[in-house]
Amino acid sequence: MIGALLQRIGPQALRIIALALVLALVVLFFASQIDNYLNGRLFNRISSSVAVMMLIATGQTLVILTRNIDLSVGSVVGFTAFATGLMIDAMPDMPPLLLVAFAMAVGACFGAFNGFFVAYARVPAIIVTLATMALFRSALVELSDGTSINTAMLPQWLVQFPNTRLFEIGAFQFRAGFVCALLVVLVVHVALARLRPLRRLYAVGSNPEAAAMAGIDTRRVVFAAFVMAGALTGLAGFMFLARLGNITVVAGLGLELQSVAAAVLGGVNIFGGSGTVFGAFIGAVLVDLIDTSLTRWPLVSEFWREAVLGGLILVAVTADAVLMRRLVGLKGSRKPSRRALAEAKAGAAKTEGGRS
Amino acid sequence: MKSLFLGTTAAALIFAGSAAMAQTKIEGGTDANMVLLPKFLGILVFDQAHEGAQEAHAELKNGGELLFVGPTPENSVAGQIELMTTAATQGQAAVMLSNNAGDQVAPAAKAAQEAGTHVVTWDSPIPSGEGEDVFVAQVDFGSIGTVMAEMAHSILNGEGEMAILSASPDAANQNAWIAALEEALKEDKYQGIKLVDTVYGNDQSEMSYNRALGLVDKHPNLGLIMSPTTVGIQATAKAMQDEGLCDQIKVSGLGLPSEMVSYTMNGCAPEFALWDFRDLGYLTYYTAYAIATGQIEPELGASFTAGRMGDYAIEEDPGRKGAKRILMGDFTVYNKDNVEAAAK
Predict the structure, then answer these.
(1) Are B293 and B101 in contact (CB under 8 A)?
(2) A354 within a domain of the structure (yes/no)
(3) Do A330 and A214 lie in a common domain?
(4) Interval A164-200: pLDDT, tens
(5) Is B21 in the same domain as B83?
(6) What is chain A's alpha carbon radius of gyration, rounded to the nearest angstrom?
(7) Which of A327, B93, B233, B338 could be disulfide-bonded to B227 (CB atoms 3.0-4.6 Å)?
(8) Number of domains in chain A
(9) What is the side-by-side strand order in the sheet with B193-200?
């Protein structure tokens, strides 16, 4: 029965299932450790705080798929959040959608800057984005001129937007910030799976030479990946501003590592070519869950929290990899019945009945 | 009546002080290149300190340069050490440092002193006092403990649980203030107040915001979050407001009136305190200039007049054995009555 199911599920879906299992294990573990843990409040906390990271992780996934990496995302989030705050402070009547577009455009410009050096100057992405991480941060220091953005400078609609409750299921509140971010994630996920131009990201990532032979302009694809990732990161900057209100020059510091962790945990292959946006989303939830839960875990002192977080990420990745291998192994062991698969495709109901 | 009495005592003390030693009046006009080195660039309070230093720089007609340089936020510790070394190599007359590097900066500061560059710390000292001429303390670090305990007492009506949300675990000033608060809470008056937890938001909005909510979830009976950092207090107040927790959990600590005014007016943060960073920059500049131009020696008992701010003397730092400090003075407690005026 399990075998039959596994036969039908693609490796990506399998990975997401494995990840969901790990997620459940982590929740169960902390539920056994922390009083009053499993309730609607946990969902509300995680969903509101992950809204920023899931957008960044989505962008990071696009870049990693093409065998690259973007370490400048933290600085881009900080800069966009600050610039967007300045913009709305200068023009308080600006329509919301235009402000969102502005944030995405600023992010896309940074993405294009990265993309140009990676795709056309052929400098390794890790070097380019390491440099731009510092460059963009310094640009923010210049832009801010020692001031900071605070809630009083922002219009009410912006400050209230992320926490507006759209609907509730029991004690689970679905807030506007999270729901919007989730919609973006799903749209990008589906587009990546279905649209031909976006499938090129996979082609370039899994085998650049073959992709070039097939007539794909690999440089343009890599450039486009960085621009799209920049726009998504800019959107995350908008979300960051709306959620926190107070933006200083340290805004977004350290998000690059979290976003890479989320993507890799979510099954995006760091060597490019495979992975899904939805997986990265679950990875982001996992990182946020571990971080939030550790704050509440009395056994771990403040000073060890980082180490424990790192350790748990390592364990989660390992568990995920082992589980994955097991599942793939299980799948492999059914190989002799490949004929059954053909039959299953032909007449699903009958074959399945015969097997169980 | 009480304040009159205190005023008289203070006046008497000042008279006694000036009778005991002559105040050096600081003369301007001598050129000296000075470096103001904050924890990192781009934080409002440090820019205010810079303004204060510029005011003193102009007032003293220093023909030398006043440089305002600092590391970027992600590189604060290493950057401060590097900038300290650079200043010594350039032969700057004095470096004014708000230390974020703990004792790690001490070797570089000592080397700078040996090269003839004076090191005056402000805002946050070098914990061991090594490599430092003198520390210009914004307020008495012990009295910060008392003020925070007093605010907690008044907000909690004398009874309840409180937690601390600090900046980074290795900021010397933060740790000294937390220790002072713990010390102050031992007094009988505050025995109804229980300090249940301390967490760190690293002066980042997002981390502070999440840590504040973590505190709420971890301690169901929490009544107050005390955050002795301007970024932390603001993030905490926003988190409580966003989650509709302001009735249950209050916020206090050290904050800027312009950033806290809305939270004070709506009751989320009924009271908080701060000192004037412009004054701190001004006094620090006067001190560094006086030492760099040889008008005073950085020794115990040396005293001088710092322009518009009046008389100051170098004394022993009660919090750091063997180290010297200059005490700037009091700070202001803000509440509904005075925060709006201060925010403008």
Answers:
(1) no
(2) no
(3) no
(4) 999 998 889 999 999 999 999 999 999 999 999 999 9
(5) yes
(6) 22
(7) B233
(8) 2
(9) B193-200, B160-166, B222-227, B250-253
Same domain? A145 vs A210: yes
User: Can you give the pLDDT at residue A350?
Assistant: 42
Q: B210 and A141 in contact by Cβ < 8 A?
A: no
Please check whether residues B326 and B208 belong to one and the same domain. Answer: no
**pLDDT tens across B119-178, in order?**
999 999 999 999 999 999 998 888 889 999 999 999 999 999 999 999 888 778 899 899
> Chain-wide mean pLDDT for chain A?
87
Asked whether the beta carbons of B162 and B152 are under 8 A apart, the reply is yes
B280 shares a domain with B195: no
User: What's the pLDDT at A2?
Assistant: 62
Q: Which residues does A contribute to its contact with B (CB < 8 Å)?
A: 36, 41, 45, 49, 52, 134, 137-138, 140-141, 144-148, 150-152, 163, 240, 243-254, 291-292, 295-296, 298, 302-303
Together in a domain, A229 and A128: yes
Q: What pTM was estimated for this model as a whole?
A: 0.81
B54 interface with A at CB cutoff 8 Å: no
The predicted complex's ipTM stands at: 0.82
Q: Which of A296, A313, A329 is the last residue of a domain?
A: A296
Strand-pairing partners, residue A214, are none
- DSSP E strand boundaries for chain A: 165-169, 172-175
CATH of the domain at A175: 1.10.3470
| pLDDT for residue A306 | 72
Q: Name the residue in chain B with its Cα closest to that of A293.
A: B214
* B24, B133: one domain: yes
* pLDDT tens-digit map of B286-330: 999 999 999 999 999 899 999 989 899 999 998 888 899 999 987
Residue of A nearest to B48 (CA): A146
What's the full length of chain A, in residues?
A: 356
| Cβ-based neighbour number of residue A303 at 10 Å | 9
> From A39, which residue of chain B is nearest by alpha-carbon distance?
B217
Indicate whether B56 belongs to any domain: yes
Q: A91 and A68: one domain?
A: yes
Contacts of B244 in chain A (CB under 8 A): none
Residue B7, domain CATH: 3.40.50.2300
pLDDT of B10 higher than 50: no
- The pair of structure tokens assigned to A74 is 């933290």
CB contact under 8 A, B205 and A251: yes
Residue of B nearest to A254 (CA): B74
Contact of B204 with chain A, judged by CB distance below 8 Å, is answered with yes
Tell whether A244 and A151 lie within a shared domain: yes
Same domain, A222 and A323: no
Q: Decide which of B15 and B48 is more confident.
A: B48
Q: What whole-number distance in Å separates Cα of residue A127 and Cα of residue A253?
A: 18
| Same-domain check for residues B183 and B270 | yes
Which two tokens mark B173?
């000033």
Residue numbers of the domain that contains B101: 2-139+276-331
| Domain shared by A230 and A344, yes or no | no
Q: Which of B72, B175, B178, B236 to mutate to test binding with chain A, by most A CBs within 10 Å of its CB?
A: B72
Q: Pick from A296, A321, A341: which residue ends a domain?
A: A296
Same domain, A10 and A110: no
The Cα–Cα gap between A53 and A47 comes to: 10
**Alpha-carbon gap: B231 to the closest alpha carbon of chain A (Å):** 8
